[in-house]
Amino acid sequence: xxxxxxxxxxxxxxxxxxxxxxxxxxxxxxxxxxxxxxxxxxxxxxxxxxxxxxxxxxxxxxxxxxxxxxxxxxxxxxxxxxxxxxxxxxxxxxxxxxxxxxxxxxxxxxxxxxxxxxxxxxxxxxxxxxxxxxxxxxxxxxxxxxxxxxxxxxxxxxxxxxxxxxxxxxxxxxxxxxxxxxxxxxxxxxxxxxxxxxxxxxxxxxxxxxxxxxxxxxxxxxxxxxxxxxxxxxxxxxxxxxxxxxx
Length: 247
Prior knowledge:
Elements (H helix, E strand, L loop, with lengths): L1 H18 L3 E5 L2 E3 L3 E9 L7 E4 L1 E4 L5 E11 L5 E6 L1 E2 L11 E3 L10 E6 L5 E11 L2 E16 L2 H7 L1 E2 L10 E7 L7 E6 L5 E6 L4 E7 L6 E9 L2 E10 L2
Parallel strand pairs: 3-12
Antiparallel strand pairs: 1-2, 1-5, 4-10, 6-9, 6-11, 7-8, 7-10, 11-12, 13-14, 14-17, 15-16, 15-18, 18-19
């Protein structure tokens, strides 16, 4: 019985060791779990070579020095954007695997400037996903990684408004319902449409949760007459137009 227990315990220890990780990613001063996703937000300014930079430190959990390399994996990127990474030195955008390794002493952690991921929107809005994998040079299966979600939005509500597609009310004059076709760009966090009477009182409101589609509002509870409708984006009124209800 003791032999069986000893064997079971030994297998448990070996299994735990085999699944332990030699490296840990430190992001923003705290350890993160393997394959965690970090989101970085940026606004598209009117300057050349604007970039969003992610930094991470790598900790060696072992009692020996380890040589570590980095691989960048492109999960999804906005067309027209560019990205690169640095591991001691910075590499060209077409380099996805660091040519050299970096030695991390036992129980030590890299400095802030050793690793960085660089995302250049190049006037493109949208979200790109890049994965960074850190692994032992002599054992590539001993690895840890994290994903960075780079989100680029317009730099102002005016820029955002210029990219919004929101069709006129139809039919107009309307009878029992009115519809709107719309397509919102990245950067719209809240949207709603309000209908007002000529006294400025809101008589109906409909929130918009999807980024594109058709909004349909019933008008059965409203009397004939002239109304105004306003589209509100991110708590700012973008457009106000006239709606006529006729039966």
